[in-house]
Amino acid sequence: MSPSQPTAAERFINGILPENPVYRQLLGMCPTLAVTGAMEPAMTMVGATAFVLISANVITSLIRGLLKPHLRILVFTLTIATFVTIADRFLAAYVYEMSKVLGPYVPLIIVNCIIISRCEICASKQGVGVALADAIGMSLGFGLALASIATVREILGKGEWFGVTVLGEAWPNWGIMALPPGAFLTLGLLLALANWIGQRRAEALAAREKGTEG
Amino acid sequence: MTDEPRKGGYIRQAWLVILLALIYGAALAGTQTALGPRIAENKRQETYAAIPELVGVVGEDEAGPMEIVAEDQEDEDGQRTYKILVGDVVAGWILAPVVPGEDGREQCVYKVLAADKAIAGWVLPATGQGFADRIDVLIGVTANVSTITGLYVLDQKETPDLGSRITGEAFRDQFRDMPTDRPVEVVPSAPGAGQIRAARTGATISSQSVADIVNRTIANLKTPLRKLQQEGGQRPPEQ
């Protein structure tokens, strides 16, 4: 392992906030926009993506010494497609209604850039422990992002959270929030908020360092 | 030379890919073997739950929860009969005979009997290619196959929020009460008799695919089902 590579703890932490796949890397936009109309489909998508990401990272890390550079993308895709198919079949068997709600978005996990990028950036270069920590961190980061967007959309769009009424009868459901424009609006606003917070923290850190030097 | 790293033959280069493909193939086969029956049962339950409303045996505003219960005995073809219960009242029966189509291939259809044991209608499972993937539908028709009584989309992977609107009532209701004496046509807007609006989905190919599936299935099964109805389709299930 190259000494400049992050440790397992760093990989884990980075995936949650500093390198959040949605808010910092703008990856996985398709499920982020498509299945965040409510918490239940969003969390099911997070579970399926986490399963595929963890499995693909672990397998890729285990066989990293055997990977040939010109065949690695093929191996990543083959591995990811297998676990996506298993996840898809599992959902169809045990949560059939949700599987129908998610429709083509579960098979589309195959082309989710978060997974193939983690195979390329981390799992094909580092050990199993680090790859596992990276996958869990990224899954949590992805879950956090989808949960935040789905929470805003479901509460404002339907007055509910996880299907439970939270705003009462008086709330005039903002139908647009449950529709595709609501997904773009919410993502844009939360992305701006994440950037603003990041900028404020960076400025505060810079000011502190300047004060220490002075 | 660009081919330099690939020296050593294809097998030496690709053995890992081949090995992984075999392992993953076995894993997928195992998954399908383990989960396939459960998925098939889920689909069967969805199909049987949709059938009564498709032929109008049970209405949307029916009092009491509907239940489909398998009868103990099987018919002469080894097919099980299912009883449609609304609350405690028997609303009808579903049988699943195999019918030879005009194309020479045998196809399973659902024969629905009303409470008075007369044929209420048929439900025809059908499949065809959509824009993205296969579309599976159920087509409800009257006992003499003269009118479409309903359409239900069992499975589709069309473009979300566009072609996927074929599952919505606004699109499906266009087929209701449509005569089967001429093929269903897809028009951009302002439909006449025997026509449906593609604008209901905004996806011409998906709408056309469903219309093609309906037309092909009805053309294939209309005559055999009418013959079956005349030959003894009125026979009630053994009690």
Question: What does this 3D model show about the protein?
Answer:
The complex is a heterodimer of chains A (214) and B (239). With 214 residues, chain A is mainly alpha-helical. In chain A, 70% of the residues lie in helices and 2% in strands. Chain A is built from nine helices and two strands, in the order H-H-H-H-H-H-H-E-E-H-H. In chain A, strands 1-2 form a two-stranded antiparallel ribbon. In chain A, helix 3 runs parallel beside helix 6 (113-123). Chain A is flat, with a radius of gyration of 19 Å. Chain B is α+β, with helices and mostly antiparallel strands and 239 residues long. Chain B has helices spanning 9-54, 169-172, 204-232; strands at residues 66-74, 80-86, 89-95, 98-100, 106-108, 110-114, 119-129, 134-141, 147-155, 178-179, 185-187, 195-197. Classes of the chains: A mainly alpha (214), B alpha+beta (239).
Secondary-structure map:
The complex is a heterodimer of chains A (214) and B (239).
Chain A: H1 8-16, H2 29-34, H3 39-62, H4 72-94, H5 96-102, H6 113-123, H7 128-158, E1 160-161, E2 164-165, H8 175-178, H9 180-213
Chain B: H1 9-54, E1 66-74, E2 80-86, E3 89-95, E4 98-100, E5 106-108, E6 110-114, E7 119-129, E8 134-141, E9 147-155, H2 169-172, E10 178-179, E11 185-187, E12 195-197, H3 204-232
Parallel strand pairs in B: 11-12
Antiparallel strand pairs in B: 1-2, 2-3, 3-6, 4-5, 6-7, 7-8, 8-9, 9-10
